[in-house]
Design goal:
Alpha-Beta Plaits; mainly alpha; 3 strands; 2 domains; 3-stranded antiparallel β-sheet; elongated
């Protein structure tokens, strides 16, 4: 018996885990064996082929959702900057590369002054949150594309500056400070 699909979508790239594949295959073969007529066999084969296609679609959606969840787990929700875990992984990678290629690597730590005082005045912490968000935007505006800003903890940020010596890191730090000062002038 030959099973033909009337749909031309290519699903060969989507793969179900072996356990699920075997379960579906066994289900197909069992139901086809139990069918009384060849017409019933064809109907079952078509129905089950559609079921497999749906399972493949679900697997593809689940894979995409897992990717989104993983990305979101590495981003700080307040600042939209990479979080500490992401920064630590990136820092390890940058240190390894700096050693491998004998290149300089600089790291800045940026701390928001007096955040505790702002949060104490505003019990909802909205003022402190705004200060953190403004600082994050200023840091992003002050770094180069090759730099890696991240929220480290609370009111601290980390900026990884690859292939930069002390002088270049000082220039980046000055740009960030200028951007922070521009931001705070309007607050």
């Amino acid at each position: 018996m030959e099973i033909k699909s009337d749909q031309s979508e290519n699903t060969s790239e989507i793969k179900l885990p072996n356990k699920e594949k075997n379960g579906l295959a066994n289900q197909i073969f069992q139901e086809i064996k139990e069918a009384k007529t060849e017409e019933d066999q064809k109907d079952l084969a078509t129905k089950l082929a559609k079921q497999i296609k749906e399972e493949q679609k679900i697997a593809m959606v689940n894979k995409e959702l897992a990717k989104i969840l993983k990305e979101n787990a590495l981003i700080d929700s307040l600042t939209c900057l990479p979080n500490r875990e992401y920064a630590e992984n990136n820092l390890k990678w940058e240190i390894k590369n700096a050693k491998r290629y004998s290149e300089p690597l600089s790291i800045l730590v940026v701390d928001v002054d007096k955040l505790k005082l702002w949060n104490d005045e505003d019990e909802s912490h909205l003022t402190g949150d705004e200060a953190i968000k403004s600082t994050a935007k200023a840091i992003q505006a002050g770094v180069r594309d090759s730099d890696f800003p991240a929220r480290w903890a609370g009111d601290e940020f980390l900026v990884i500056i690859p292939r930069s010596d002390k002088e270049n890191a000082t220039l980046v730090a000055k740009r960030i400070l200028d951007k922070v000062e521009e931001t705070t002038r309007y607050c």
